[in-house]
Design goal:
The chain has a 9-stranded mixed beta sheet with strand order 2-1-17-16-14-3-12-13-15. Strands 5-6-7-10-9-8 form a 6-stranded antiparallel beta barrel. The model has no long low-confidence stretch (mean pLDDT 95). By secondary structure, it is an alpha/beta fold. Strand 5 and strand 6 form a beta hairpin. It is built from 6 helices and 17 strands.
C-alpha cells in the first residue's frame, strides 16, 4: 500500500485547539467493524456499547511537562529544550531549538537558577544529550518550569496542565498524551465498573515519534520509533480470563493496542512483559488480542490511521473519516472519538 492511500482532505477549522468540558461531552462515532455501519453519539453513551464481562485496557502513562525554556549562561540567548527520553539519573536525550546554540559543553540556566544543564553529546539525529542539575527532586523542579509538549497543530495555550492528562494517569514518562483516554471522567469510569466491565492497565510511554510523518511512498518501508512498555501480571491475567469467558478485550487508544499486540507477538501469548516495541501495524496485520478499539481521529497519512485501518478495514475507515469531515467532527488530540466493535 502507498502512504498516499491514507490521505484525506481536512479543513483546518476541524482541528480541535482546546479540550471540551466536561471530558465526556465530545462526540463519539460508533463503527461496526464487519459492516462499516456508523452511528453518531456522544462519548458518555459509550457505556451502552460495553457489556458485562468485557475489559477495557488503558494506558496509565503520564505526560511530562517536557518543554522547558532556558538561557545560555554566557550570552543570555533563549533556547527551548524538549525532553525526549530519560537515560539515567538527571541525564536526558532532548531536542534543542535552535540547535546551533546548544553545542557540547554549553551551560544553560532555567527559572533563574532553579535548574541548570550542560550539553554533553550530540546524537546522529542531532538531538542533545543533556545533564541537568537542580536542588531536590528533578520532577518537582520540572513541574515548576515545564510546559506540556502539545502537538505542533495545537496553537492555543493550555490553561490547565491536567487537561492533557488522562484521569487515570500515574506512571510519569510520556512526551505526548495517549489521547483516546482524555475523554474519560472519573464518574464515567465508575459507571463502567458498576456495569461489570473490568479495567486493566498497561504503560507505554509515548514518544514524539508518534507525530513523525511517514516519508516513504511504500508503507512497508517505514521504520517505527521505539517506545518502552510494561504489561503487568494483573492485566495479563484479566485479559486471559476475559478471552476464556468469550468476552471482549477493548483497547483504549493505539498505544494500548500496540502494547497488547507487541506482547502477544513477542511472547506468543499474553503474559507479563516489559521492554521496547517498534511494532508497526498497517493493513494486513493479524490481530491476536483486540476485539475492540477506542481511538481519536488521526492525521492523514499517519501510522495511526494505518493502524486503525488494519483493525477496521481500509475502506471502512476511509469512509468513516470522510463522514467525520462531512459531519464536522473535531479532529486530533483534543478532538472527538470513535469506538470500533
Amino acid at each position: 500500500m502507498k502512504t498516499s492511500d491514507f490521505y484525506y482532505d481536512l479543513p483546518e477549522e476541524l482541528i480541535a485547539q482546546t479540550p471540551l468540558e466536561p471530558r465526556d461531552s465530545s462526540r463519539l462515532m460508533v463503527m461496526n467493524r464487519k459492516s462499516g455501519a456508523l452511528e453518531h453519539k456522544h462519548f458518555y453513551d459509550i457505556i451502552d456499547y460495553l457489556n458485562e464481562g468485557d475489559c477495557l485496557i488503558v494506558n496509565d502513562s503520564r505526560v511530562l511537562p517536557a518543554r522547558i525554556y532556558g538561557v545560555k549562561e554566557e550570552t543570555g540567548a533563549n533556547v527551548e529544550f524538549l525532553l525526549l527520553r530519560h537515560i539515567e539519573s538527571k541525564r536526558w536525550e532532548t531536542l534543542a531549538k535552535p540547535g546551533k546554540k546548544a553545542k557540547v559543553g554549553t551551560k544553560f540556566v532555567f527559572g533563574e537558577g532553579i535548574m541548570t544543564a550542560v550539553v554533553s553529546e550530540v546524537t546522529e539525529e542531532g538531538n542533545r544529550i543533556v545533564d541537568f542539575e537542580c536542588e531536590g527532586n528533578f520532577y518537582e523542579a520540572l513541574d515548576k518550569l515545564g510546559q506540556m509538549p502539545l502537538p505542533p497543530y495545537i496553537h492555543e495555550k493550555l490553561k490547565d496542565k491536567e487537561r492533557y492528562q488522562t484521569v487515570y494517569s500515574r506512571e510519569l514518562g510520556s512526551a505526548a498524551a495517549p489521547t483516546a483516554g482524555l475523554h474519560f471522567t472519573k464518574e464515567l469510569m465508575e459507571k463502567i465498573r458498576a456495569k461489570g466491565v473490568k479495567i486493566g492497565y498497561v504503560t507505554l510511554h509515548v514518544g514524539l515519534g508518534t507525530f513523525r510523518p511517514v516519508k516513504v511512498d511504500d508503507v512497508t518501508k517505514h521504520h517505527m520509533h521505539s517506545e518502552h512498555y510494561e504489561l503487568p501480571e494483573e492485566t495479563a491475567k484479566l485479559i486471559n480470563e476475559t478471552k476464556r469467558s468469550g468476552k471482549r478485550v477493548i483497547a483504549v487508544g493505539t498505544t494500548s493496542c500496540r502494547t497488547l499486540e507487541s506482547v502477544a507477538r513477542k511472547e506468543g501469548s499474553v503474559r507479563p512483559s516489559e521492554g521496547w516495541t517498534d511494532i508497526f501495524i498497517y493493513p494486513g496485520f493479524e490481530f491476536n488480542v483486540l476485539d475492540g478499539l477506542i481511538t481519536n481521529f488521526h492525521l492523514p497519512e499517519s501510522t495511526l490511521i494505518m493502524l486503525v485501518s488494519a483493525f477496521a478495514g481500509f475502506d471502512n475507515v476511509m469512509n468513516a473519516y470522510k463522514t467525520a469531515v462531512e459531519e464536522q467532527y473535531r479532529f486530533f488530540s483534543f478532538g472527538d472519538a470513535m469506538i470500533i466493535l
